[in-house]
Every structure is written in structure tokens, then in C-alpha cells.
Amino acid sequence: MAASDGEKSLIVSFGEMLIDFVPTVSGVSLADAPGFIKAPGGAPANVAIAISRLGGRAAFVGKLGDDEFGQMLAGILKQNGVSAEGINFDTGARTALAFVTLRSDGEREFMFYRNPSADMLLRPDELNLDLIRSAKVFHYGSISLIVEPCRSAHLKAMEVAKEAGALLSYDPNLRLPLWPSKEEAQKQILSIWDKAEVIKVSDEELMFLTGSDKVDDETALSLWHSNLKLLLVTLGDKGCRYYTKSFRGSVDPFHVNAVDTTGAGDSYVGALLCKIVDDRAVLEDEPRLREVLRYANACGAITTTKKGAIPALPTEAEVQSLLKGN
């Protein structure tokens, strides 16, 4: 049974939050950019804010630097209605930064400053286990698997959430420049693959993880495992494909004027989790699941129409407007 509005179930998002520095001009290299605008980001944090903005209940678990940027990021979570009870501050390390190049087609390239940044230093003993245990859905990426001690904190949080009955949701969010090698990235991303019940990958991540040059059903299903309830492959401006134990299919995209793809996948995931947190049966009901994925596609599409991730994440009213207009 769905919870009433007053008691929406909690979705906890685990991992990194950082500041993207985005050039004031699109389509130039970092060296040629005349200036940069601060844009808070980090996929798990974006997902938490996406959920809250759509009327869901979200918390973020991670570590920030005890610096002005870290305090700013914690403030942004709170302003957006996301619980910050799971945030730790590190006095010895800085909040992570990323310089992002926006190519003229809206796609991105990254240069990261993390040596080490606070998010990498989260320890298992710093986790707010009560908060994690109260999650109905526990969502995470793979950047938190790259180095210790954060890797151990990630594995512990996942285990605690699972034991408490949470649905585990995984979006690997591949950022190759952060990994020591391609091989290590592939190995570690797949090391926790069989734990998640909902997995979302992009077409590029699908090819990277399988070594295939095709984005087809056979390639996607090579990633299927017995614990999985839903596997999603997002296809950028071509919509998405879905796979469950009983059915599979694709959902068409919404055509919009994309200016910046940052956060589109996070918006999509947030929308999906919002819709399934109190209604897991939708994962076994194809017509209803298709409606949920159409909603998620709409959220992703709207997010590409503005610069930056968090400012572009849609409200329920904006999503309904796009759904009704199509």
C-alpha cells in the first residue's frame, strides 16, 4: 500500500557531493574558458535533491570538507529539503572540485581535484546507521568504491541497508579519469553488481562494462543477475530500455532543446525511485512501469534544458506540464 503524503518513505543516497566549476562559455576547452560558475554536483547528491524536488523524502550520506565549500553544499541539501543527518565533515581534507568542459553539443569532459578529497575519507565507523536502517530505498554509485576507507564505508552501508529491508539501487556513473585504470574500474563496478535490485546504466556504460560495441538486448541481458528486479539502459536523446524477469521493452524520449546534459541521469533515477519507493509492485506491472519510465524520461529531458544539474532538476508541476504537452 502506498504511504500517505505525510509519511512518505525515505530514500537514502550514498556517495560524493562536490562542486563543478562550469565555464561561462560553452564549447571551449578549460584553458580557453574566460571564467567559471560554481555548480554543486555529485551524482548521489543530485539524486537526493531530484527526489525532494519531486515531493519525495530523501537523505544524503557522505563526507564533505569542513571548509566554505563543504558548508555551502550541506546548506544546499538542506535548502532543497534533503536530510543532512548523514553528513560528516573532515577537518583535514578539502571538498572535492571538478572542472567541467561543456562541449558545443552539451556533453561534458571532466578534470577532477581530489588528492584526497573529504568524500574519499568517509570511514565505516562514521556512518549514521540509524538513518541508513530507516531507508526504504538505498541508492549509490561507484565513485565511492575507488579508494579506502570510503570503499569499506560503502560496503558496510549497503549491507546495513539490505539487512534492514531496503531496496538497493545502483547507478555506476562511470567517471574513468578517477580510476587508476579501465580494468580496475570495470572490476570494481562489477564487484557489487549482484547485490543491487535496480540498476541503471547509460548506453556508454553498458558498452564499457560488457566490452561490446553494441547496445542491444543481448548485450544488456549479459548483465542480468538473479537478484535483479529492474535493469535500465538510458539512451540519451533516444529514451530508455527496460528489462525485468518477465518482460522487456523501450520507452520513447521527449524531444527538447538540450543545452547541458549534466544531471539528466540523476534526475531520471530520482524520478524512478520516487515512484517505486512505496509501490514496489510497479516493477512487476509493465503498463504501470512504462508510465513511471515515461515520467522519468520527462524529468531527464527537462534537466537538459538548463545549465547545471541542481538548478535544472524539475518540480512536479514542470514534469506534468511536459507530460500533458506530449
Can you count the helices? 10
Spatial order of strands in the largest sheet: 5-4-1-8-9-10-11-12-13
User: N-to-C SSE series?
Assistant: EEEHEHEEEHEHEHEHHEEEHHH
Level of helix content?
25-40%
- The N- to C-terminal Cα distance equals 30 Å
Biggest sheet statistics? 9 strands, mixed
Overall residue-averaged pLDDT value: 94
Q: Low-confidence stretches at least 5 residues in length (pLDDT < 50)?
A: 1-5
The helix-and-strand class reads alpha/beta
Estimate what percentage of residues fall within beta strands: 15-25%
Radius of gyration, whole Å: 18 Å
DSSP strand count: 13
Overall geometry comes to: globular
Protein name: fructokinase
EC number: 2.7.1.4
Family: Belongs to the carbohydrate kinase PfkB family.
Organism: Camelina sativa
Task: Describe the protein's topology.
Blueprint: E1 10-14, E2 18-23, E3 36-41, H1 43-53, E4 57-65, H2 68-79, E5 83-90, E6 97-102, E7 108-113, H3 129-133, E8 135-140, H4 150-163, E9 167-170, H5 182-191, E10 198-202, H6 203-210, H7 217-221, E11 230-234, E12 240-243, E13 248-251, H8 264-276, H9 286-303, H10 316-325
Parallel strand pairs: 1-4, 1-8, 2-6, 4-5, 8-9, 9-10, 10-11
Antiparallel strand pairs: 2-3, 6-7, 11-12, 12-13
Describe it.
Strand 12 and strand 13 form a beta hairpin. Helix 1 packs across helix 8 and helix 8 runs antiparallel to helix 9. Strands 5-4-1-8-9-10-11-12-13 form a nine-stranded mixed β-sheet, with helices on both faces. A four-stranded mixed β-sheet has the order 3-2-6-7. The chain is built from ten helices and 13 strands. It has 326 residues and is of the alpha/beta class.
